[in-house]
Amino acid sequence: MKNSADELRRGFHRYFEQHEHRSIPSSPLIPQADPTLLFTNAGMNQFKRVFLGEESRAYRRAVTVQKCLRAGGKHNDLENVGYTRRHHTFFEMLGNFSFGDYFKADAISFAWEFLTKSVGLDRSRLWVTIYREDDEADELWRKIGVSPSRIMRFGEKDNFWQMADTGPCGPCSEIHFDQGTAVPGDDTPNATGDRVIEIWNLVFMQYNRDAAGTLHPLPKPSIDTGMGLERLAAVAQGVYSNYDSDLFTPLLAAISRRAGIAYGGKEETDRSMRVIADHLRAVTFLMTDGVLPSNEGRGYVLRRIVRRAARHGRLLGIVEPFLHELTATVVENMGEAYPELKSAAGTVTEATRGEEERFIATLDQGLPILTDMVDKTRAAGRTVLTGVDVFKLYDTYGFPLDLIGEACREQGLTMDEEGFDHAIEEQRNRARKTGGFEQETARPGVTDLAGQVGATKFVGYDRLESDSVLLAILKDDRIVKEAAEGDEVEVVLDVTPFYAEGGGQVGDQGVLLGLEGRLDVKDTTRPAPSLILHKGTVSKGRIKQGESLRVQVNGTIRQDAARNHTATHLVHAALRDLLGPHVKQYGSLVAPNRLRFDFAHFRPLSSRDIDEIETTVNGEIRNNEAVRTEVMSIQDAVANGALAFFGDKYGEQVRVVTVESFSKELCGGTHCRHTGEIGLFRIVSETGVAAGVRRIEAQTGSGAMAMWRKLEAEVRELSDLLKVGQPELVSKTRKLMTQLKDKERELEELKLKIASGSSVASTVKTVAGVSVHVQRADGMDMGGLRALADQIRDKLRSGVVALGAATDDGKVALLVVVTKDLSARIKAGDLIKVMAAEVGGTGGGRPEMAQAGGKDPAKLDRALEMVFDLVERAQQR
What we know:
alpha+beta, BirA Bifunctional Protein, domain 2, 24 helices, tRNA binding, ATP-binding, alanine-tRNA ligase activity, metal-binding
């Protein structure tokens, strides 16, 4: 195909490489070391520090095709996707850049030549817009042959770019394309309709704006351009909609086959297909770059995108998980340009399926509640869904807010956002009070110290002792001149080998020795970047401001913490090798006696996974690999493969910790010199701490050895209790478990006989012509309830059976059975969802049988009573 997306992508790189530009790979969708951005949203993001003058590169011209996402924060196109033919969450931005090299003349010449000669666009259909005061740009456009009648001037809103309120900025010039009379809209740029659309923006960064708003010329003006591949492909391929270009047609064809609905038929189904096609690309690229669904930050944006796509699948009649199957189409179409998609394909498929299944469970539970709320709102003559109802759907049933809004819009309603915000704030206040959390108050003494004393020099990477001067003493948040025996204080030194808590590693402990006293340090913290506080108790004599001290770190505690910190890096690398590149550190604790590592992953680890991680880490320990530390620029570190924890803020120079051929991370903590010093590694537990976040807790060295000894002692004790040798322990336990299950089965059979002995007729009511049997059978598990329901159904022949039990573990079991002759009108699954919600649970099933669990036995009777009303309503529909 002429001007295919692949050809345009390659051609853009090739054209600018021929004009001495360095071809730079796309940076990840997660901004590198830039906490100001949620996602990479423009080609210039990776060059931001260059434009700000904070760093330099070995090249002065660059060309990129950058992966971008606009679905959160300031730049958010999510709500428009599907409703227009040009908005997207994920898109590719073509860009060429000059860092103080060429300027307007070359930028304009390059853009015009690429579009009219390389791509072959009709120059008579191109328009150019410039900043109203940019006479130089006007002259340059005319010089290359653009008619003055095709050049239009606009103000700052349309044709002046700035990074922020202050800093680099400048006029910009945009190239627009006239799509012809077949497309609605005016025939000039920046007017109504989509007939004339912008395709390329050339930013001439030539000024620096100061705090007063005054513009000062930059000594080395630069160029930053951006052009969306999706729009260029549509224009170059002669189609009106981006979705009709070859970037989307394979996806739309796959969606159409899956739904059994032709694309191009009805606007309602076309819109849903466009949403799904766009969102599939965003999901695939986000997960490939390491984002997994969660309830906060980037993970929450991804969750919204998956769930929005899944909901539009339902609008097309697709009720089971399907998105995970279609991610393969994204990989097939874009894997050549982005090889990382192929290596992450399995992870993307599994993670997408898991999120779809969670959302289906949410919808199954919440949709009947939402429908009931909408019906009641209309019946009351209102057009606004109350904030209380919205909050209940959001908080209790896990409905994303945007989906509630879309559902309301489809039913001709709006939702009370102000009332919802009020309910959210009330919940936060209750959580703060319940959890004992209060707003952290400022510590004036610490604030004063940070301004009064100079920066403490840390020398603890190379030694554990130093001669230091006591610069300040803080007692009860007040600065004092001295401290006596028994006083609890925090002190500041000019030089210290004590590592301050940071990066998950706890602070050092040790002693400070003076001529007249001793301070036992129990913790070391860094409340400000330049301030290190040593917290402890004066155990002897007194210490005074200004005196010289001998400072000694507890070497045993430090070494144990170092073992665990190096082991944490090994665990991270082992997890990524085993599970995939989506594994990212979410948090850690490195203490002398244990380590904790939180990481992104979408399912629990199997026993085999845990064994493999332990084997890998212990293998690196046995190899006794060298652990090297280097200081380098953040760009060099990332370019060399170091893992940076995106969202963290890094300085220009960073410390890189490397375990040869296995692990490389940015890290300021203390480490072993060789992995063999760790001794032994043992995982204690693996658990989930949030959706998409897993936690490993482990021990090393003597702690791991103590754990082994404890396990051996417990095995010996079990062996003694069961009076068998250790080799027979497992077989003996299995035998006892079988015997126990036999006894439990006998007990259930006895309970069933007792429950079924009551008269069926005495518990049956006739509701709207239907026999409804409701019975409470406490103590029964779900298996017992099913057996009882089978007996009752056989006696009823036609009717509804609803059973409930308060179980022995303090929970609720619910079961509904509907005979086949009634299941077309009365569905067991519909009944069980409402009943389950009453007892704080969830459930589902088939039209003829459904079951649920709950948490609130006190509401069991009410849940069972609801069946009569639910059956009557079902009969009336």
